[in-house]
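Researcher: Structure prediction, please.
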Amino acid sequence: MPEGYAGWAEREDHLNADEILEVVETAVQLGFRKFRLTGGEPLIRRDIVEIARRMWDLPGVQTLGISSNGLRMPELAKPLRQAGVRSVNISIDTLDPQIYRQITGGRLDLVVAGIDAACAAGFEIVKLNAVLMRGINDDQLLPLARFAAERECPMRFIELMPIGPEGAINDSHFFSVAEAMAALSREDVLEADSNARIGHGPARYFRMRQLGARVGFIGAITCADFCASCNKMRLTADGKIRPCLGQENEVDLRPALRSGIGSVEELMTLALANKPETHLFSNGFKRLRPMTAVGG
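Model: Predicted structure follows.
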């Protein structure tokens, strides 16, 4: 979270549940079938269970997931599962409590409790995510893989993208998925798990032969074909449709949602038509808003 950032608070420019559902319903009409509630942190919304239930009840919605920091999972895991959420992604960048607090400002023990609550709630799958950061958590690859294997969760390692607040963590901490794979290969044999289809994202999965862990790698920066199969759109909390995380080409839906100026379907179709072939992360990309304001 950027220092002093207060965008997490509920504000007038944030979409309410009815507006979110109107966008989701329109997306279904346009052919979207897979949805994920993300953030920032989606579980701070007081109506998150209601939103999940109403989305799952829409004809045409085939999968519904949540990405979370896990802190509210002990109280919300079962209600979310009952509401229709099928999968959960939880961020855990390190197993060192002090480093975890340095990265997030939060408590590691609360996240572990959230992961265990999610595992116990009966979701179809719980995936764990760690952003690779040189000099911060590059010594945590094997401990995280072991932690995930003990809970039968896939562990995904994600390249640091230029979408954070800068400051304590910046581009100098970039650590590639190739380096992460090499480091894990020195500890165990990585066997390609080409038949694995875990969720609908870009991770490439391997099985660690001795440990039995399933590990995935998401290389948005170094994998040349990362964008080749991307068919995702992103809706921000304040009503912008974003065809690509790595380009600043948002389309504002709020005038259509709140004032009837234009059509939500027409605006979403416009955004789809303008979806770029690739991101600009490696071409001097300058973010106008932090990731916490865009959605992960």
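Model: The two ends are 13 Å apart (CA to CA).
Researcher: Thanks, that helps.
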